Amino acid sequence: MPTVTGAEADTKSGPAAAAAGRKYIGIDAGTSMVKAAVFDARGRALATESRPVALSLQGGRAEQDMDEVFGAVTEVLAALAAGVPGPFELIGLTGQGDGVWLVDAEGRPVRSAISWMDGRANELVDAWQSSGVVESVFRRTGSAMFPGCPGPVLAWLDRHEPAALDAAEAAVYCKDMVFQRLTGIRATDVSDASMPFLDPRSRTYDDGVVEELGLGHRRGLLRGISDPIAVGELGPDTPLAGTRISGGPYDLAACALGAGVTAEGDGLLIIGTCLAALVSVRAVDLDGEPAGLHISTDRPGHWLRAMPAMVGTAALDWVLRTTGTPLAEVDGLLAATPPGSHGVRVLPYFASSGERAPFVEPRLRAELTGVSLETTPADLVRATCEGIGFAARHCLDAAGLTGSLAICGGGTRSGAWTRLFADVLGRPLRITEGEVGARGAVLAAAERYGVELDTAAWTEPTAVVEPDPARAEFYTKAYADHRERLAAARERARAS
């Protein structure tokens, strides 16, 4: 049964019941979990459902079963439909971005999906960096390629698995596969298409980039862009058949909407498997070090300067597994060790595909220094959390944060880590709890359908965490040390 919140109890009878009759569903097909929530007209979550989905990690490769992902979507929809009385006004859909999801004409898998976490194209990206292709593409599109984005993955498949590309009707993204199988409509949107083939100014594919990556003969695999986002109705064989649904944006842009990050200069930090930093901008900046991307949104003239780092909660999970520490003990361990972690330092770049933002370094790996026989699990945990905080600051600096900062994601469940982030970043954090991506997907769908919602109420922060001035000053100096150690590590990675 769905998890039902107290908000539903407030809307059982009288005038409030009529208002609560307008219900909205948001679906977020994430990397490790498919989540869905029912919201009332003021954005209060009435019920939530989730299903885990497996990610196969082996030898630097990361793949997912598309049928499992789609099955999880239909399961959460069916559970919500059974547990919450309708009717439902509309459904907003979002999902993980990047990677390659090869499908046939019916939206069914040709092979397993290749995740954004995949590293099989590392050497290809290395070669493109050396030859200047990565920089050339960035100067045209504002997006810096990394091993798990569609350009390198498609080029790798073209060289090593051409039969899979021959059999595919399209190379799509997660939400596009789900949307097609729910509605029969074949489309993607400008947010997912932003990496790496989209010209963010014209909002169309740059065929010169396709040719530069050696994929001109595969141009037909790029799904047509629906601008604005595609809409349709759930098919007859799906739960809630006939309900209106929209197909996008993808999860980073949806989270920005769900957290109310639309004003120029405001930012969002998502502490999830991937540490994503987003800043709302009104211009495309093609200067500087090629890194991150410019996500086009459903509003022409508005972009999200995105630095979606590979580092994130997965780094802390590795340290917890290695030290045999339960997740529930993190807050206590952070309290047990002072800022600076007794000299232990962690460069938290544990991903097998290196780092993609705010720089691209496929061969970069994690480093732990200052460890001795006196080092405790608390030191390692705090040093890792501090290292992730420094990576977040680096991303936000590179993205150009000048306004307020919202924060969401699984990492915010730790109050102590959230306070550490405030101290490391040296600024107040607007905490946005709950299914932020699903919330943003509903807001995008409502705008597309012309349904008026009180966006201020939907995106109101649940709390604001202020930094401690003394700790913030300490971490400003520690961040400078982090950048020096990172620069040296990047030199070693390039020489390896």
Automatic annotation (TrEMBL):
SUPFAM superfamilies: Actin-like ATPase domain
One Gene Ontology molecular-function label: kinase activity
Matches recorded under InterPro entries: ATPase_NBD, Carb_kinase_FGGY, FGGY_C, FGGY_Carb_Kinase, FGGY_N
Keywords: Kinase, Transferase
Superkingdom to which the source organism belongs: Bacteria
Pfam families for the chain: FGGY_C, FGGY_N
Domain Carbohydrate kinase FGGY C-terminal: 296-446
Cell cycle listed as a keyword: no
GO BP terms: carbohydrate metabolic process
Keyword Magnesium: no
All copies of domain Carbohydrate kinase FGGY N-terminal, residue ranges: 24-216
Family the UniProt entry places it in: Belongs to the FGGY kinase family.
Name of the molecule in the record: Putative sugar kinase
Organism whose genome encodes this protein: Streptomyces clavuligerus
